[in-house]
Design goal:
Helices cover 10% and strands 40% of the residues. The protein is mainly beta. The chain has six domains: 146 residues, Immunoglobulin-like (Sandwich), CATH 2.60.40.1220; 129 residues, Immunoglobulin-like, CATH 2.60.40; 89 residues, Immunoglobulin-like, CATH 2.60.40; 96 residues, Immunoglobulin-like, CATH 2.60.40; 108 residues, Carboxypeptidase-like, regulatory domain (Immunoglobulin-like, Sandwich), CATH 2.60.40; 29 residues. The protein has a five-stranded mixed sheet with strand order 29-38-36-32-33, with no helix packed on it. The chain is globular.
């Protein structure tokens, strides 16, 4: 290996027998210098002058690092951009002081260790904010300096979104427990493209992990942290490559092109798929009673069975209608049917469920709850206003000479009916009620099709939604271009609190076939059990089909723009499953079709899709990526370039006039 020392010059050590060209590459990384530019704006970043300890210094013992530049500077988001390796459990104090950057390390220096301070582009000149990019400062507390690098990309395992700001670390300790008990040995942080580089790495074998650091201890200590791990070892290496460096006479004219040898560090293409463990600790997170008539229980993880409730000041027998607020049993809403119970100011109960103990085992547990309603009673002002309105109505009837008793106003059970005037041929009707249904007369539901001038009854299916107890779905066989009417008689549905619905009617028409397009995928690399999700421009699922014989066919699609994602359903449960580090289970693989698909009505699109044509970090179309690359520097460069061009054009015009 090599190091740089301001007193003794460059010295080469025999670890890995790196060539001299590595020295040049390292010196460049230790103090990279920007090029001068003209125009109205100063484009020159701060220039490194000297530091203490010196860059590349060996046997360093100072915990304060001072780096001096040629102009006044500032630090942009130092906590986000500056990465110190080995990671500092006690956060270092980094600040700009005039023309200097000062770093005070709070942790004890580790013997025989290479320290790297990767500033990214945090160092900027004080006036224009020109960044000194890729500035890395390195020194060692031992006799040698490590300079190898490992790089790659961290992606969200479910949707291949690049993850910004995630810590990526190496462990030389290859025990499985190291990730959960020891801080990383070397670290890097992902940028806005999800890319990371870990610098100052010694030759050897490592495990690599990614982690969202919530407690600044640099190891996996909380099940809620997002993690990623690689099944195989990482072995740093390098080779020598050639590149072409261009020198310019000015911004338009090339002076010469020179081939230069440089050191390329590997691996540089690692892909880490980040996820949150599905096996969370099971416990009751909270309980609340927002209104008198219901209360909710929130658990930290899904369960296989419902909890058991025993009333302490009420009889719980057949007292509730239970609604699952999520597909799995982790959030439950209890609708109280009996008015004698929900009129109680406070409900006292015991809730028994399975709880994760300190040994990570599920054991029975019983909690005692006292739930007071958060529903505010009507104020005296509101009660007075209602009484005045009632008296006013009675007075108006007396003045009119009405002798009959005024019939009380009926408060119907409301219902929201989803029945668009132009319905898709594959769609269905939905009835949503504000409370669970007590009784329903299916004979009072009518679906009719218009034939010439007559409305003929047609068969349909009425089913309660599998998740929401307040929702019912109506399935019909819609014929393209035909007209339909859906009617519900008065009092056909009664809620659990005694209200019934008024008469309902909706008319609609099925779309014609020429309103749609079709998309067909021929998929190379698909396996049995895979399914494809068609996505909208917000990366949300529009429709899902199974892959059969390497094909995924989507019929009756509305014209527009779509993306596609294939899920490798390893356990054949019809859904994507996350990973589990404790059990060394990776999340199920997903693949994106590389392009957006756009078509008009009455168009058929056939696409060939090779799952392995592109690496995972290049598959997802930019149009639907939510994590966009930072482009502030590009905008600044474009602004300067435009100003330079304007100045050049102005000078040319003045010259021509003369």
């Amino acid at each position: 290996m090599f190091y740089f020392n301001s007193k003794y010059g460059v010295r080469l050590l025999k670890r890995g027998a790196l060539p001299l060209v590595v020295v040049a590459a390292f010196l460049y990384s230790c103090a990279s210098v920007g090029t001068l530019g003209g125009g109205d704006y100063d484009e020159t970043p701060p220039k490194f002058l000297k530091g203490n300890p010196a860059p590349g210094e060996l046997n360093a013992s100072r915990k304060r690092v001072t780096i001096e530049f040629d102009e006044y500077l500032k630090l942009d988001k130092p906590q986000d951009k500056i990465v110190i390796s080995p990671p500092q459990v006690k956060q270092a104090n980094v600040r700009a002081v005039g023309k200097k950057v000062q770093i005070d390390l709070q942790d004890t220096l580790i013997p025989n260790t290479t320290y790297t301070i990767d500033f990214g582009d945090a160092i900027q000149d004080n006036n224009e904010g020109n960044p000194l990019e890729n500035f890395v400062y390195t020194f060692s507390t031992g006799e040698q300096l490590d300079s190898m690098e490992v790089s790659g990309t961290v992606l969200n395992a479910r949707n291949l979104e690049p993850i910004k700001g995630m810590m990526v670390g190496l462990h030389v300790d290859l025990a499985d427990s190291a990730f959960k008990t020891k801080p990383f040995d070397r670290v890097g942080r992902t940028d806005s493209r999800g890319k990371f580089t870990i610098k100052g790495v010694a030759p050897g074998e490592y495990h690599i992990f990614a982690l969202t650091e919530t407690d600044q201890n640099y190891y996996y200590s909380q099940s809620t942290e997002t993690v990623a791990f690689r099944d195989s070892l990482v072995i740093p290496s390098f080779d020598l490559r050639m590149r072409q460096d261009t020198t310019w006479i000015d911004s338009l004219v090339i002076d010469t092109i020179v081939e230069r040898q440089y050191t390329h560090y590997m691996p540089d293409d690692l892909i880490l798929k980040a996820f949150v463990n599905h096996k969370k600790d099971q416990r009751l997170a909270k309980s609340e009673r927002t209104t008198k008539k219901d209360f909710s229980l929130f658990f930290t993880a899904p369960a296989d069975t419902f909890p058991t409730i025993r009333g302490l000041n009420f009889d719980e027998t057949d007292a509730f209608v239970i609604e699952k607020l999520t597909e799995r049993i982790d959030t439950l809403k209890y609708w109280i049917k009996d008015s004698l119970i929900y009129q109680l100011d406070t409900l006292e109960m015991e809730v028994s469920y399975l709880y994760t103990d300190t040994l990570k085992q599920l054991v029975p547990r019983t909690d005692t709850l006292k739930l007071a309603s958060k529903e505010k009673p009507k104020s005296e002002k509101e009660l007075k206003k209602e009484q005045e309105a009632k008296e006013k109505e009675e007075k108006e009837h007396r003045e009119k000479g009405d002798t009959l008793e005024v019939a009380p106003k009926i408060e119907f059970l409301t219902v929201d009916i989803y029945a668009p005037s132009s319905i898709d041929v594959y769609d269905y009707l939905t009835l949503t009620f504000p409370e669970p249904v007590q009784s329903l007369d299916s004979a009072a539901f009518h679906l009719r099709q218009k034939v010439d001038t007559l409305w003929n009854d047609i068969p349909f299916e009425l089913q309660r939604d599998t998740l929401d107890v307040k929702v019912y779905n109506v399935y019909g066989d819609w014929k393209p271009g035909e007209s339909y009417a859906f009617e519900v008689d008065s009092a056909a549905v009664t809620g659990i609190y005694g209200r019934f619905i008024d008469k309902q009617k909706k008319e609609f028409k099925a779309k014609t076939l020429d309103s749609y397009g079709q998309v067909f995928f021929n998929i190379v690399g698909a396996q049995e059990g895979d399914f494809v999700e068609l996505l909208d421009t917000k990366d949300e699922v529009v429709r899902t089909v199974d892959v059969e014989n390497g094909r995924a066919d989507f019929y009756y699609l509305n014209p527009g723009k779509y993306a596609a994602r294939l899920v490798r359903d390893t356990n054949r449960n019809g859904m994507w499953d996350t990973g589990n580090y404790e059990e060394k289970i990776q999340p199920e693989d997903v693949f994106y079709y590389k392009n957006m698909i756009e078509f008009k009505a009455n168009f058929d699109v056939l696409q060939d899709w090779d799952l392995n044509e592109l690496t995972l970090d290049r598959q997802k179309p930019d149009d639907i990526k939510k994590q966009k690359p930072d482009n502030d520097k590009d905008k600044n460069k474009n602004r300067n370039r435009n100003n330079n061009n304007n100045n050049r054009n102005t000078n040319n015009r003045n010259t021509n006039r003369r």
